[in-house]
Amino acid sequence: MTIHPAQLRAAADVLRQAQRLVVLTGAGMSKESGIPTFRDALEGMWAQFDPEELATPQAFQRNPRLVWEWYEARRLKVFEVQPHAGHYMLAALEARLPQVVVVTQNVDGLHKRAGSTDVIELHGNITQHKCFANCLGDPTLLNIATLATDSVPPHCPYCGAYARPNVVWFNEVLPMAALERAQSLCLRADVVLIVGTSGIVQPAASLPYLAKRQGGAYLIDVNPQRDELAPLCDLFLQGTAGGVLPQLAALLEQSEG
Length: 257
What we know:
This protein has 257 residues and is α/β, with parallel strands linked by helices. Helix content is 35%, strand content 17%. Helix 1 (5-17) crosses helix 9 and helix 5 (85-92) packs parallel to helix 9 (241-256). The radius of gyration is 19 Å and the shape is elongated.
C-alpha cells in the first residue's frame, strides 16, 4: 500500500519539531534484516520444539545443552545479517534532534550496530552471555571466547554455574532498571515513533499507552498491517520500516536544504 504523501509530510513535520523522541521497535524491524521472529526461528531441526521448551530457565536446567545450541544457532545468524536503511535512519536522527532514545524488544543488537548510541534493550541481547546464577550481580556478563571449551554450555569462571544467553526468557522479569527508564522516558516524550511491533507483548506493549494517556505524546505507528496500537496513535503509516523510514529521512533532509 502506498502511503499518501500528506501523511509522510505530517510525520516528518512532527519529527522535525520533536525535542524528546522515543522510538519503540519490535520484531518487524529486525525481520527486514533477515532475523526470523521468535517463533519463525523454530525451523528445521528446531520445528519439533515448543518455544517454552527452549526459552525458560526451567528448560535450561532440564537440558542446558539443547537450549544453548538453539541460542548459539540464532546468535550466529545475527552476525550474518546487517542493519537495514530503517536502522540507519533512526541512528541519523540523533544528529537532528536534542534527544533520541530507542527502546527495543529485539535482542539482536542491530540498532547499536547501525550507530544508535542510546538503546534500551528490554529483552536483553542475544550476542551477549552471562552467568546463569548471576553470581557477581545481574547481569554477570561473560566473554565466552575466554571460557574453557570442554563443556557445552561453558561454565562461569567465577562460580562454576553454566553460561547462558543474556536474554529474558519466559517466566523471567524484564531488567527493572531498563523498564523503569523506558517508562520514565515515555512519560516525558513529546513524540513516540513505534516501528514494527504489534503492541501485544507485555510489558512493552503498555509503553505507548503510558506515553499517550499520561504523557500526552504524539504517537506515530509504522507497520505493514494495522495493529493493536493503530487506534491509539495520531498517525498510522502503513508500510515496512525499511520502506517508510528512509522516506521520512528524505523529507527531513529536504527541509534543511
